[in-house]
Amino acid sequence: MTTVATPPPPELAPEVVLGGRVADERRQAARATLGLNGGAEKAEPLRPILKEADVSLYPVVALGVLGFVDVFQGQALVVLTPDVSNALGLSLGVIGGARALQFIAQVAAPVPMAALAKKLTGKRAVLCLATALVWSAVTLLTGFVTSLVALLAVLFLDGLSTGSVLALHSPMIADSYPPAARIRVLSGYTSVAAAGYLAAPLLVAIMSGPLHLTWRGDFLGLGLVSLAGSLFALRLKDPRAGQFDTEVLHADIAAQDHSTPTEASETDLGFFEVFRRLLLIPTLQRLCVGFLVFGMLTIPYSTFLSTFLLQRWHLTASGRGLVIAAGYAIAIVGLIAYGKVGENDFAKDPANVVGRIGLVVMLAVVCIAIGALSPFFIGMVIFFGLGTLFIGITLPGLNGVVLSIVDARQRSQAAALVGLFLASGSILGLLLLSGVDSEYGVTGSIISLLIPGLIGGLILRSARQFVDQDIDRMVDGIIEEEDLTAFKRQGGRPPMLTARGVNFSYGQLQVLFDVDFTVDEGEMVALLGTNGAGKSTLLKAISGIGLPQSGTIRLAGNDITYLDAERRVPLGITQIPGGHSVFGRLTVVENLKGFAYTLGADKKRVDEAIERCLATFPRLEERKTSLGATLSGGEQQMLGLCKALILQPKLLLIDELSLGLAPVIVGQLLDMVRAINAEGTAVVLVEQSVNIALSL
User: Fold this and answer.
1) Which residues lie closer than 8 Å to 255 by C-beta, 6 or more apart?
2) Widest CA span of the chain, in angstroms?
3) Which of 148, 214, 364, 566 has the greatest number of C-beta atoms within 10 Å?
4) How many CA atoms lie within 13 A of 597 on its CB side?
């Protein structure tokens, strides 16, 4: 693929025009600021880090307590499922279906919770407290359930309220503490939250045993404890996003350039645009598979574990509670120990964390399978405990990596995405275990977790190769953003369009390789090349019809790489696709009205724009009532060019204007392109004919 263009104006900075890369020394300095440089032998002690940052342990403890009481209702139901089944006259299958509704609510909950957090800036702590009060009330109300409908209602509400835990807790912890302490505080949070899995069955064992309470009394007692835990977190405050990492990096770069940090702009990604962008990060794609497997190894496994203990070992509710509590006690000890180990791994190389976790996931499912097959009670307890331990220590490491490869402003959406996969894993796990249970019994269903666990562990290990490049991508984006902001504030003028290092693939087929491309205001550029060279693909990336796997595309210095196509039109980008620029079932006038949708309800402006098009192309005036599909190839291209006349874009992208047309028609169209360009619109023309390109 070749470009033909006029030379850029001399006042433009060469490194901006020519697509210069971020220097390695700047990237390494930025990674050091973010605590992601790697190479350290071991992590710094925690206490000096917290003292220097002037932060206490209250935020992580308060959030941990909220996570602790959040699991009460679900874990109590795991232990008491046989009792609830007998009391309400419901089969295990029906209760499993009710739990599935709870998991569906959990799948849906993180997205609206993250959306609320984005809309209600600075209110994440309020949302966490409000949802904690909801699930405390739900736990209390479970003790009054008398029918399937009531059970469905309390489980659904509990699932919805869990959205704050999945979408908000980890980002708030990451924003509350410096990067050098991230794995340890996440491990501490996870250990406190995991204590809920220990406390809930243990409390059930105590209340059902020595206190002789019914299952209804158990839920009432747990609801009161949950309410007390929620009140403990009342002093929780919402930290600023990235205050110890990306915000510091923005400020450092701005200080070097003697400018102020970048502010929000009209090209900032919207809520769902962030989700789409996150799903293109190679590391996150694989980590999401890890969270999917993690979801399968939590709720579904523990649900079937209780039934296994009843059927295989004939344990009462008190006995089941003690066995499950023993497993979580081992996991909590492991989490406390893992914090420092994981931080040391992270300090040496963040990719190490992912590699080790992949092995840990595989160890977890192997231990669970051995526990299910063990002929000895103590062996079963030990191996199930080890499985629970290995499952537990995966979460802080995975969360630490996820929160380190995305900009702080996108952490809530990243956590919500993780929550979606966690909850989806719960549903898939229930379906898998239920299907196997019907054929091979509850022991076979637990052993079947080997298959997704081993596959998930291998996929997690494959993410190691992408961690460093994804961190560099995030760092480079911040550096470029601040550099361009400083350049503009010093009176510089970035090009109309700049593409840097763009890579684009269709599935496994890569078409664009590290493409640099620049167009200035009013410039006309031709992209030359044979079929398959990637010309049209580059136009798709610029107009937003397709999204690149990596690289950046900027319009007047503003990053539009992952902006929706419809948001780029008001910014001044219009594309005329070759042979596909006309709606065949609409008349010429209806097509023109369709092009004018961005003009809004101003009928006068729309009519004037249409009249201007018909005056420019008299042939279209003659055929204004004809359907688009009945127009000749040249007439369709004329109609397509009318889009530019109506929208009057800053940048016009034309794909294969002359393809299949007679020379006379091509000449008329080229005259129109010259006229559009003469009015100040920059034009990028995809062509196979060198003669046509040079004639422009």
Assistant:
1) none
2) 97
3) 364
4) 8
